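Exercise 7. Given the encoded structure of a 370-residue chain, write a plausible sequence.
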């Protein structure tokens, strides 16, 4: 072999070795080759809505949202492979489940709080769960995933299951250019849930000026009454302040459980003023999300309105928004006003959201590779 050929062969060998070393390094870091970057996804923000919360550490992508939707409906994420996120969050019920305290989890035991709606979460900025115990949707996901009475899942087992699925290996590569992991699953679930935007009700048609006849006279009266009497907490186009209030449904906050589940926001803040305070739910699609309150104790909107009219319990921690100018608890409402309010709440029902195929179960009638 002459000197020039020897140099050429040596250069080729060095190049091949370098490529192999880089490939090994990428494999050790858990990075899979993917020449195509995920496609950025911009939320369609209704013009009358505020700007959503920016999440630079987990930007929305088409592939990430697609993966999150797959995971949301997949019982593979539970210990017994029978429970998915959708087991407690049904689209047609505004992503709640229609029962006060569900027993749909892996243990079969009733949970101690009502399954909340999943609506317009891209605007939530003060924490998730009824007490705000999770800072963001990414961290929130680990609660139901690992809770013994919900999905009861080991995060190590979750990662192993996802790694064993050809489908998920491919989807994680497309979404994050990495191997499946519990952390990646949480990010994908968060991305999907941030797309669950409800802004196509008859109220929205009226509010945006598209159809000024969309609301009846009674519904318009109800709209003004909600702003006047309920707007302290159910404010703005989101119909929630995303904050925490003691709304006077209890006057005894003793809690023998280790988790202080019934003490509300106090469980997180340890601030006495937060005792019995729970997160304000949105009023959007409220006629489809019964029962109501953090424990689902009220089965109808009539019961809810009656509570605010005459059932508020007076305690030092009861929110002052629920008192009149003479410091008497209760929000004054006539029977007629209550009927107008209920009429308007029906106008907040978003049939497009409740039937949007991009939010529905992608596994139906699907032959998947496992």
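Solution.
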């Amino acid at each position: 072999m002459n000197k020039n050929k020897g140099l050429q062969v040596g250069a080729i060998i060095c190049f091949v070795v370098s490529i192999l070393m880089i490939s090994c390094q990428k494999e050790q870091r858990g990075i899979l080759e993917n020449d195509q970057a995920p496609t950025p996804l911009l939320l369609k923000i209704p013009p009358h809505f505020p700007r959503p919360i920016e999440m630079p550490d987990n930007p929305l992508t088409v592939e990430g949202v697609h993966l999150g939707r797959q995971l949301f409906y997949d019982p593979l994420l539970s210990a017994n492979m029978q429970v998915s996120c959708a087991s407690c969050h049904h689209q047609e019920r505004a992503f709640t489940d229609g029962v006060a305290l569900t027993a749909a989890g892996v243990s079969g035991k009733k949970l101690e709080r009502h399954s909340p709606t999943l609506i317009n979460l891209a605007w939530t900025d003060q924490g998730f769960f009824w007490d705000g115990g999770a800072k963001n949707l990414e961290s929130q996901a680990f609660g139901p995933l690992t809770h013994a009475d919900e999905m009861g899942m080991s995060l190590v087992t979750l990662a192993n299951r996802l790694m064993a699925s050809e489908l998920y290996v491919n989807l994680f590569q497309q979404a994050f250019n990495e191997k499946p992991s519990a952390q990646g699953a949480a990010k994908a679930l968060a991305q999907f849930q941030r797309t669950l935007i409800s802004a196509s009700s008859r109220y929205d048609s009226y509010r945006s000026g598209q159809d000024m006849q969309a609301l009846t006279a009674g519904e318009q009266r109800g709209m003004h009454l909600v702003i006047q009497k309920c707007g302290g907490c159910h404010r703005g186009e989101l119909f929630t302040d995303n904050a925490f209030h003691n709304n006077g449904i209890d006057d005894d906050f003793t809690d023998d459980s280790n988790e202080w589940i019934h003490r509300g926001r106090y469980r997180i803040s340890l601030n006495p003023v937060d005792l019995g305070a729970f997160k304000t739910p949105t009023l959007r699609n409220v006629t489809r999300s019964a029962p109501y309150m953090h424990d689902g104790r009220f089965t109808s909107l009539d019961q809810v309105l009656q509570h605010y009219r005459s059932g508020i319990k007076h305690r030092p921690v009861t929110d002052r928004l629920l008192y009149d100018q003479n410091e008497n608890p209760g929000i004054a409402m006539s029977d007629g006003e209550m009927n107008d309010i209920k009429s308007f709440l029906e106008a907040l029902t978003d049939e497009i959201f409740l039937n949007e195929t991009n939010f529905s179960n992608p596994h139906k009638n699907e032959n998947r590779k496992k």
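Remark. The mean pLDDT is 91. Students should compare their own answers with the one above.
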